[in-house]
Amino acid sequence: MDLIGNLAHGFAVAFSLQNLLFALIGALIGTAIGVLPGIGPVATISLLLPITFGQPATTAIIMLAGIYYGAQYGGSTTAILLNLPGEISSVVTTLEGYKMARNGRAGAALATSALGSFFAGTVATVVVAASGPLLTSIALSFGPADYFSLMLLGLIISAVLAQGSVLKSVAMVVLGVALGLVGTDVQTGQQRFTFGIPELSDGIGFVSVAMGMFGIAEIILNLERPEAREVLKTEVGSLFLTKEEWKRATPSVLRGTLVGSVLGILPGGGASLASFGAYMMERKISKGRHLFGQGAIEGVAGPEAANNAAAQTSFIPLLTLGIPANAVMALMVGALIIQGIQPGPRMVEAQPDLFWGLIASMWIGNVMLLVINLPMIGMWVKLLQVPYKFLYPSILVFCCIGVYSLNNNVFDVYMTVLFAIFGYMCNKLKMEPAPLLIGFVLGPMMEEHLRRAMLLSRGDVMVFLQRPISASMLAIGAIALLAMMLPNLRKGKEAALSG
Amino acid sequence: MKINAKDVASGVFLILLAAVGLWLNADHALGTARRMGPGYMPMLVFWIQLGLGALVLVLGLFNGPDPLERWTGIDAGMLVVSVAVGTVVWQIAPMFGEFFTGTYNAIGLGMLAGFLVICVSKGWRLLGFICAAMCIFGLLLEKGGLMLALTATIIISAMAEPQHRRQPLGVLGLLVFLLALCWWIFIKQLDIRVAVWPMQY
């Protein structure tokens, strides 16, 4: 009963005119950047962070969340019509979706993906609502040592699951933690690594790091690659599924929702991992597996349901433990902290409007997205015809204004330039920027918990192994790291991540 | 030996950064494990980073080949020249007027000069123009106002794309559109605190 009462409260919050409007704006922006290849949710959310300062926290988070799951809807459109992934999470959709479009079933593929996403989004909303308070009550018994180990586990898993070499990803996490050290030491007030620059005493600006490494560096890299975009000549066709397609897609959607919900909660997981996982599963066990490669609807339904489910359930660790599972969630932490809200288990009690309002808005957002994506598909196809040469100056201009208006200080603009160069270099050296961002956000929190834990244990490191929660987190982390040393598993991951 | 140049370079970068970090950290009190000082966590982090960097470097000697992208002689030369030009401009900028003293404008001008110089080499051109476009935004915004800063940013960033250089009319259209859009979003709707037009003296 409590759940229903809480959800009712959430819907009351989400149905306020302002929150509805910003959920719609988030969903529209999300779809747009999802459709457009070369600009992803991480860059967009970091770009829009400064704009959200003026709004109440709930409204801001509702809009930013809408961008993330909206991008999952939009990404599939480009994948199906152009054989180009609009987002990383829709890479696998290109495999079967584009084949379906070639067979004249583009409309059916788009409808499957939108309806599957909607179903998955609805289920995921319930999962978040039900598991949130449950996990929160567990989290309240966490001590500093447990928190430290949990964050360490999150960092390890995000490094293990990142693309490319695990060793380099771990190094990037550590580098991120190191960057997070810059600023005033919380306990003694001493300035660390600030070089006497007053702007650095609060630490390196989070938006500068995210926008430089993901926004600006991406522009330069996209410009280096010649544009290969060609809009499908064939018609989208009927959006209605045949009876047989319904029958084949339904079980895949169910399986995809399950896989996505689970992989979304995992630290280091998220939409892209979920769609890969669901695709692998469909290819192995679905009834239509012999049709894979010729436009199997299962290969669209499963991954598309999974990525949307995961985009929503990845909010669970953030809302209950205050720990970001992926780079987008790291941005959400940034947004909350800027609003003066410390993400963590006390959020459900202290910020019921935000917690339940966000959950309710997820479902509302999914309804909006269904309308935005199916009847209005023609509009998004038109958007695809805007060439990148006109897009990138626009993105750049928005970045400049956004980063300046953070503190009304040009220092942040120059800082962003430095991180753009750094992000460009990382890409050239095949160093993944996403683990760095998570390390950067978690680093300061980890230091605080480490110091508190060691103070409580009177300097005894064994406290991390004596507490059962902490010990099991560390054990899982160690297993995950060791597992990646095994050549078989590593190959499996490479295969999964490269499609 | 199959050298993975990307990994070797990453390793060297990580080690160098960790070494600098450890050196800077010498100023901070370490404290004890029980009562950690401000230097304790940095010490742990930079030593781990040093170790990981060394591991990446050593393994990179064997798990290649994965060469770096080709640098032409001009690319390498211009990198050195532009860093030199940027530093010199930064240092002498305060002589150009009051605008360049006491703020970040001097370093902004230095960066702008460096990025524009590096555009001479083909390999750096995209990076140079995009970064220069951002720097000129920082330089012009507060005195020149939003419209002037945006105009300069859009024109410089457009130079990164060869097609724009052949079709200046497209850039003009984009410029008008973006100026109107930014005015509507940031001034009309969000009302960010920034001058719109050049400041009057």
UniProtKB/TrEMBL annotation, chain A:
It holds the Pfam family TctA. Residues 20-437 form the DUF112 domain. Keywords: Membrane, Transmembrane, Transmembrane helix. InterPro entries: DUF112_TM (IPR002823). The keyword Membrane applies. The chain crosses the membrane at residues 20-40, 47-71, 107-130, 150-182, 203-223, 258-281, 318-342, 354-374, 386-404, 470-489. PANTHER family: TRICARBOXYLIC TRANSPORT PROTEIN. This is Tripartite tricarboxylate transporter permease. The lineage of its organism: Bacteria, Pseudomonadati, Pseudomonadota, Alphaproteobacteria, Acetobacterales.
UniProtKB/TrEMBL annotation, chain B:
The chain crosses the membrane at residues 7-24, 44-62, 74-93, 99-119, 126-156, 168-187. Keywords: Membrane, Transmembrane, Transmembrane helix. The keyword Hydrolase does not apply. It comes from the Bacteria. This is Tripartite tricarboxylate transporter TctB family protein. The lineage of its organism: Bacteria, Pseudomonadati, Pseudomonadota, Alphaproteobacteria, Acetobacterales.
